Amino acid sequence: MTERMGVLSSDGRCLQPSPLAARAMLRPAARRLAAVGIGFAGGWAVLYGALMPFGLGLTLGLAEDCFAPCAAGAALGLLLHGLGALSLRSLCQLCALGAAVAARWLLPQKFMPAALAGCGTLTGMALCFALGSSGADLLLYSAADALLAAAIGFGLRKFAPERPGMGTLLVGAAVAAALGSVRWGWFSPGVLACAAAELALCCRAQKFAALSGSAVLGAALCAADPALATAAAGLGCATAAAAVLAPGRRVETLAAYAGGCVSGVLCVQPPGNAFGLLFSACGGMAVVCLLPGGWLAPAADTPQSGENAPAPARSAAASTRLEAVAQSLSSLAETVNAVYEGLPRRREGFRWVIDNVHDTLCFNCGRRETCWKQEYTATMAGMEALRPLLEQNGSVEAAQLPGQLSRCIHPAALCAAAGRSFALYRSRKEARIHSEAMRTALTEQYSAVAEALGVLSEQLGRPGDPEPYKSSRVAEFFTGLGAPPQECAVTLDDLGRTHAAVTLPRTRFTPQELAALAGEVGHICRRTLEAPQVLSCKGMTTLLFSERPALRAVFGAASAAARGEVSGDAVQQFCSPTAAQMILCDGMGTGRPAAVDGNLAAELTARLLKAGFTAELAARLVNVALALKSEDESGATLDLISVDLYTGTARLFKAGAAPGFLVHGGRVRAVGEATLPMGVLGGVNGQSRVVHLTAGDYAVLVSDGLLVDGAGWVAKQVELSAAAGDAPEKLAETLVQTARIRAQKTGRPDDITAAVLRLEKSG
Fold this sequence. Notes:
Layout: H1 21-44, H2 54-61, H3 67-81, H4 88-106, H5 111-134, H6 136-158, H7 166-180, H8 189-203, H9 207-224, H10 229-245, H11 250-268, H12 271-290, H13 311-342, H14 350-360, H15 368-374, H16 376-393, H17 411-461, E1 465-466, H18 468-480, E2 487-492, E3 498-505, H19 511-525, E4 533-537, E5 540-546, E6 551-560, E7 569-575, E8 579-586, H20 591-610, H21 615-628, E9 638-644, E10 649-655, E11 660-664, E12 667-671, E13 687-692, E14 698-702, H22 712-724, H23 728-746, E15 752-761
Antiparallel strand pairs: 1-2, 2-3, 3-5, 4-5, 6-15, 7-8, 8-9, 9-10, 10-13, 11-12, 11-14, 14-15
């Protein structure tokens, strides 16, 4: 199934589609396309007229989803740079690229095997050719390429190019070297690109990034073409002037950059030779002048309140502390299990009852030698014959003693001793089973909570890309309202969605005020935001703004009890800021006991999901709660679907639940297989599945009572109702009423429930 994006607000309003929906779906393709372009630049670039390390280095260092497109681009660059002529150097480079790609496919996330495969292939092939008629130059150049490629790949692995730093500089050096080797008369595209990049960084007040970029890009230009050394010196002087004199002010920065560039070039070259280089640099400045003003807004050195600055550090510290707590809880669970496994096992079977009777009664008897030594076999056979009597009645009478024990001179005492020993044996066995169940429940809770804290720690450790300029604007807006924020952070997540978190002193807001705040903050961030989620704790109020998704969810549910008015089925349907959740729990049996189990499971699962637990972790904790609820056997099925309303990704989790039904593109299909419910075993035997839904699709969860007459008619009814565009409430009522009539004909009544979710486009 294909998926699109959407959301339902808490008050059921119709929401506008997100402008970032298409961008989020196209982002992976854009990343791969960019990797092809970067790889082409790396394959084209030649340093000092002989070295070609960038193609292999980029292939070794880029992320797992980009290295193969990068290798393809590098191979194309190598072939086109020689105008189709396949030299020995190019042949060695192509084979090295293939070896590196194969190694990264076979051993993902491993740098050393890929580096050894790529660099080893490059050096090995050069050695083979050098032993022939190619001479030692090929071997020396290839060995240098291998060392430089390994260093470039290692740098990109340590510093990803997606974030500013060394990785970005390495990619920029590859592009600058590739463009620097291209000249069209006076015009040099490498000088133009470097000038545009450095000037843009200066306009954004990123002084240190501009200065470091000027040094690295200038070195790449000189390595690609020594004739560009003058241009590199001029661009370096221009960047220093703009970064020091007028950072973050567009017009002043442009003037300082132009003056520094002219001064730097003329200091090295006479005006006649410098004209071409200045022409290319002016082209780069013209490109920056044509960019939208919002792209060049200051992103660094922006004045912020003292409370805003340490927020990332506090998030990192909180993430580290949560991770430490998670590891401690996980270690505690593992330690308890390890100690239990290391303890000696007491093999207490019925033989322990026999030994206890001997020790308490027969040890001081005068016939002990006769019974337990001379006639040992007959005595043991008689004692074993007592076992079924004791297991059935818990005691034995003297008249019931088997023939092997008829010679006992204390028959009444023997029966009493056997009864006491068996009762003690059974109580010790039950205590052992109970303690083992408690240990399992304790360690299961520790493990589940540890995993949940680990997930939360990972989320805090990835707060998203900060946008300091927008954060300061939002902080100024709340300050203007008379409520200066304690903290204010605007970030972009991995899919480019905007989130804003504003922490204020304890404040109450009406729904109308929250809607107005969402509109104003969205105007500042240039995004359409949902009404914020309000969290209050310890005298502080935090407003969490999220970008409005493009889908909304419409729910419907219907139920019929098997007997009376109490149903053992429970349904929970709600929307979090980013997902629609639908839960159906079926308690074992019917009536009030089943209703207790079903409602307990549904309520606990809903609370855990709202707190950020995954379906698997929630199921584990609910399983423990049901197992320890009472001495009576408890159990409930769990049927859960969670739909990401931004992307349409639907995650289904089933533990003992009946098959559900999904409608996509007008066609219905059943999902789910038979498993055991929660509360029966020490662990959860659940099934997870991920599908993709879009606007107009349905998800239907049903209890097993609705399938008493089979699933075929349910699938047909769901497909017909979906084709007719029935509302979820109407579809649920139709299914329940039809199933009730069918159940009455079969004479097998059971609780019947249907829960329906339909996705619609917002707006």
